[in-house]
Structures are given as C-alpha cells and as structure tokens.
Amino acid sequence: KQEVTQIPAALSVPEGENLVLNCSFTDSAIYNLQWFRQDPGKGLTSLLLIQSSQREQTSGRLNASLDKSSGRSTLYIAASQPGDSATYLCAASGGGADGLTFGKGTHLIIQP
Amino acid sequence: DTEVTQTPKHLVMGMTNKKSLKCEQHMGHRAMYWYKQKAKKPPELMFVYSYEKLSINESVPSRFSPECPNSSLLNLHLHALQPEDSALYLCASSQERRGQGRRNTEAFFGQGTRLTVV
Known about the structure:
The structure holds two protein chains of two kinds. Chain A is mainly β. Helices cover 0% and strands 57% of the residues of chain A. Chain B is an all-beta fold. Helix content of chain B is 0%, strand content 54%. Chain B contains no helices and eleven strands. Chain B has strands at 4-7, 10-13, 18-25, 31-37, 44-50, 53-57, 64-70, 73-79, 87-94, 108-109, 113-117. Classes of the chains: A mainly beta, B mainly beta.
C-alpha cells in the first residue's frame, strides 16, 4: 500500500525567501504525482501535476520535480509571498481511477 | 472550465436526518471521487466512480450511500450519521481514458461541504 510522507510538517519563513517542500512515497510504481494547496476550511487547488515519465513541471514561481527511482518529489517556491501561506499537500496516483494517496501536508507561513 | 461545484457549502444535520451532498462537473471527466477530510488531516478516499459505475468503496459504513446519476453528477446520501462523521467532504474528478494507454490525469477538487452532525 502506497504511503506518502511530507517534510517538514510546518515551516515559517520571512517573505522573499526561496523554499523547498519535500514529499516521499514508498511505491515507485506511481502514474503521477500532484501538488495541491489548501487554504483553511477550503477545498484543494491543484498546483502542479507531474506524470511519471516527466522529471519536473513549472508554473510561475513554482517548480516541482519528481525522482521515481528514489521515491521523492520536491516543490520549490521562489520569492515567497504572504499570500503563499497555506497547507501544501502532495498526492500520488497509481493510475486508473483509483484515487489519490495524500501526505499529511506542510503548513507554510510566510511572514510579511 | 476546471470547476467542480459542491452543494451545500455547509450542512448541519441531526443523527436521525437524511440529507444529500451534491457534486457537479462539466469537464467531461469520467472518474469522480468522494473524499473525507477531518481537521488537520489529509483527505481520505471514500468512493470512486468510473464511467458511472462504483469501482472503489474503501470500506465506508453503509450510512454513506453514493450515487452517480450521470457522467456530470455525483451524490452522497447520508442517513443516521454519527457525530464523528463531522468533517469536510470533498468531491473530485479526473479524466479516465480506457484503451489508450493513458489513465487518469489531473484531479480537480471542489470546495467541499462542511458537515456537522449534532
């Protein structure tokens, strides 16, 4: 059974810093890896999707990488802003319509 | 349009009530999902519908009854719930292309229904 772990559980940094969120998964037979953002009491907003054949994806200040062989993904946030404060979740999919397995998330606070 | 719409946004129900949660998407996705999320926990998969057929039930109690009337709609019928069932219920959808060597892709989530059982 797939297990997803995220480190750190919480992170607080001053505005403007670049930062890295880590995600690891136990079963390398994933089909894709997806990063989400969740604001308190809200739903999930998809940030980036990396297919298993890809190494990285970029969207604006966000860059996500995937290393299937080591079972790791990272989300890089450049020039952080207070509006980036949220919980960031990574989730692995095994393919088919089998749903996502989520990590517990990283709670990120960007200090103004 | 990458929107998944859930109604209602908030629901308070008694333990003897019957209520339904609704989810709608118009992206042509043929896979739809229900997740349950407790406070400060990640979402947990409850049900998966693939081409309007229930394909996964993650051992969810029978007081939760899913229904997929058509490819755009997903319901979750609730009956005789317990206070511990209080949570954020999230609906999601994704493409599923059979026979093309390509399976489900990006998942899109709704804003959730905040359910409180009293």
